[in-house]
Amino acid sequence: MKFKKPFTYTALTLSLLTLPVLSACSKEANSSKAKDQQEAKAEGKQTSLKTNVEAMQASLKKLQESLQQDDRKQVKQYGTELNEKWLSAENEIREKYPLLYTDAEKYLQPLYTEAMKETVDKTKAQDLSVQLSRSLENLKNPKQTAMKNSEALQKAVEEYSAYVNEQTASFVTTTKAFTEAVKAKNMEQAKQLYGASRVYYERIEPIAESFGDLDPRIDAREGDVAAEEWSGFHRIEKALWVDGSLTGMEKYADQLNQDVTELQTKIKGVKLEPTQVVAGAMELLNEAAISKITGEEERYSHIDLVDLAANVEGSQAIYHAILPALNEKNAELAKKLDEQFNGITASLAKYKQGDSYMNYTSLTKEQVRELSQQLSALSELMAQTAEIF
Mind listing the pLDDT tens digit for each residue in 107-149? Predict the structure, then answer.
């Protein structure tokens, strides 16, 4: 995954103090002044966002020209420049416009990945750049999604929040068992418990990723962070499946257990909004279809099917939460989503072995392609649920 700057789900609360003696004119003047200040502030933020997006569009245009000219050096240069500009603004975009954020992210991430390759698929990169150009244009002048505080949507948020807290509690428990096995240097038990812990993290990943440095500390892969800062699940994964020794892993086990406990504390204080819940599902499926499908997430243990199945389950929990509201608005879309979730669940079930899944490297290219297509189709359908807000 690509690690992001912290994204916090917040609710703005204003407290108004009433002064005992104010004339009607004074009240109106103050009210008007406050309104002007708020509008100026909002306009300033909007201008800042527009400026950032225009900067991204400029870099994207240069990248498109470099692709046309087959200039490998400049493709890499402008691909890097575009990604850096996105990273500098994505926290604000993701918080204010989660659905527009997800739409842009699903094209920018694979475009950047393609631009960094030694041999670039020019057709693929150009197609992605066209889609990203459309997304950025929509983002340049966004209209903030109106929140519907309908009973069905509020219930959806409450239901999903309860799900996240339940999954996090299980994550804490299974991680504790895993880290104890690591500290006891019980290789086989640690290998078994590794996958069991990963399930719960992958189900709640959209929320887990939002807390600053916690996600990298828990889930960074080798090369995602500086070597001396690398810790978490994948540091221990390498020790289990590559090094064949747990010597020296005690400190990583203790740190992981501490980080997971901290994550639970932070998640309990999260306030979710309906659009952010749906955007989380879309982001989860996008990431699974684009990067995790390559097998890069669990590069040593190859339990990638465990992660993919958990990503689908986490997204399905969101779908079930919003289903009552979706049925009111678009029963046909709900039916299609149900069929798509059933389809990919059936596909994943073919690769089950007991309580887990077969080694990801055992899959053929055709089988991987089928899963990727199903994940992409599911993500596109989930994107359409934005209409209920």
Answer: 898 899 999 999 999 899 999 999 899 889 888 877 654 444 4
Q: How far is 1 from 45, CA to CA, in rounded Å?
A: 29
Terminal Cα-to-Cα distance of the chain (whole angstroms) = 28
Outline which parts of the chain fall under CATH 1.20.120.
43-140
Q: 97: how many CB neighbours lie within 10 A of its CB?
A: 21
Q: Give the Cα separation of 145 and 149 in Å (integer).
A: 12
Q: Helix or strand or coil: residue 363?
A: coil
Q: Enumerate the CATH 1.20.1420.20 domain ranges in the chain, comma separated.
A: 151-388
DSSP state at residue 356: E
Spatial distance between the Cα atoms of 185 and 122, rounded to a whole number of angstroms: 48
pLDDT tens per residue, range 50-101: 899 999 999 999 999 999 999 999 999 999 999 999 998 887 887 777 778 8
The whole-number pLDDT of residue 389 equals: 64
- Which residue, chain included where needed, has tokens 């779908």? 319
Calculate the alpha carbon distances from 239 to 116, 122, 248 in Å: 29, 38, 9
Q: What's domain 151-388's superfamily in CATH?
A: M75 peptidase, HXXE motif (1.20.1420.20)
Alpha helices by DSSP H, listed for the chain, are 24-68, 72-96, 98-115, 122-140, 151-183, 187-203, 205-208, 214-219, 233-238, 250-268, 274-290, 304-329, 331-349, 365-384
CB atoms within 10 A of CB 181: 21
The sign of the dihedral angle between the CA atoms of 82, 88, 89, 91 is positive
Which own/partner pairs from 302-306 qualify as long-range (CB within 8 Å, at least 24 positions apart)?
302/359, 302/360, 302/361, 303/194, 303/195, 303/198, 303/356, 303/357, 303/359, 303/360, 304/360, 305/348, 305/351, 305/357, 305/358, 305/360, 305/363, 306/195, 306/198, 306/199, 306/202, 306/356, 306/357
What distances in angstroms separate CA 85 from CA 112, 132, 202, one per listed residue? 12, 14, 28
Q: What's the angle, vertex CA 296, arms to CA 71 and CA 260, rounded to 5?
A: 125
Architecture of the domain defined by 43-140: Up-down Bundle (1.20)
> What SS3 state is found at 223?
coil
